[in-house]
Design goal:
Shape: elongated
CATH topology of the largest domain: Immunoglobulin-like
Number of domains: 2
Strand content: 35-45%
CATH architecture of the largest domain: Sandwich
Order of helices and strands: HEEEHEEEEEEEEEEEEE
């Protein structure tokens, strides 16, 4: 054998010896907890808009309910309130899997301390944003809670899918007159209240945003919408139809959907139809 082979064999032997002498891994230590009796167990739940920020006070927060699956008993319920979180930290900073995303800076959360006697399978239900009933979403997660072992920091993170779409103009139930040139205007935001716009963190160029004109359940026109920086809304002009097939109203609908994230939102409103503009009353 050559000298280099002898050196290599010697290094391998030394490394093997060092590996045998290394201390045992300590990840399997048992928790230092009493053997009996209920244990206080802190659980933090954080509800976030999928692909966006935390649901905070700007959108009314979220409601959280924790239920014992075996008994059906509600263990805790309450509201998530607070800030939406740091946008730079959440949306733009790369993270390792174990690094906190939402808790490194102040952000909304719901925290409760349960008295647990045994490992308990719970269902955590979240619904929000509470200030926008037409866009309210729900989600739930089942998991085991272990007595005395707190779940804090980022906590249990639940994601709600959707967008906040609101028709700003024309106002709902405002009469529309046949043949009139009308501008449909709508705002689009994430469920956490963040603005959707071109070139932003929530880039509208990647989202399908369009309007529809309906008579009953029949779509008679689909409208391409464009972003207006001044009003921070999406707009589309259209002519009010002259024929409604006997109906006395039309419906306007705005849809936003992102096929890559699964987020979608919708708003619609009904409008009475007038066949002609009423004449202006002349003053004597």
């Amino acid at each position: 054998m050559t000298r280099s082979v002898f050196v290599l064999v010697g290094l391998i032997s030394i490394l093997s010896l060092l590996a045998d002498l290394s201390p045992p891994a300590r990840s399997q230590v048992t928790p230092d907890l009493p053997l009996s009796g209920p244990q206080p167990t802190t659980v933090l739940v954080r509800v976030v808009a999928h692909g966006a920020m935390v649901l905070g006070r700007e959108v009314g927060g979220a409601r959280i309910t924790i239920t014992d699956v075996a008994t059906g008993r509600i263990l805790a319920t309450g509201l998530q309130q607070g800030e939406a979180g740091d946008q730079n930290q959440i949306m733009r900073t790369p993270h390792m899997m174990e690094e906190p995303i939402y808790s490194s800076r102040p952000s909304a959360a719901f925290t409760t301390t349960l008295q647990l006697q045994r490992p308990t399978m719970v269902e955590i239900l979240a619904e929000g944003p509470l200030s926008y009933p037409h866009a309210l979403q729900k989600t739930s997660q089942r998991l085991f809670l272990i007595p005395g072992q707190d779940l804090t920091h980022d906590g249990i993170v639940l994601h709600l899918y959707g967008y906040l779409v609101q028709i700003e103009k024309p106002k709902a139930r405002e009469p529309l007159i046949a043949k009139d040139d009308v501008k449909l205007r709508a705002s689009v935001r994430t469920l956490s209240g963040s603005l959707v716009r071109p070139h932003g963190d929530w880039d509208s160029r990647k989202i399908r945003i369009y309007g529809e004109v309906l008579i009953g359940d029949r779509i008679i026109e689909r409208l391409q919408m464009f972003y207006d920086e001044g009003s921070r809304t999406f707009e589309a002009p259209f002519f009010v139809p002259t024929s409604t097939g006997g109906s006395d109203r039309i419906t306007l609908r705005v849809i936003a959907t992102d096929l890559s994230t699964g987020n979608s939102g919708i708003d619609q409103a009904d409008y009475p139809m007038l066949s002609e503009r009423l004449p202006t009353k002349l003053t004597p």
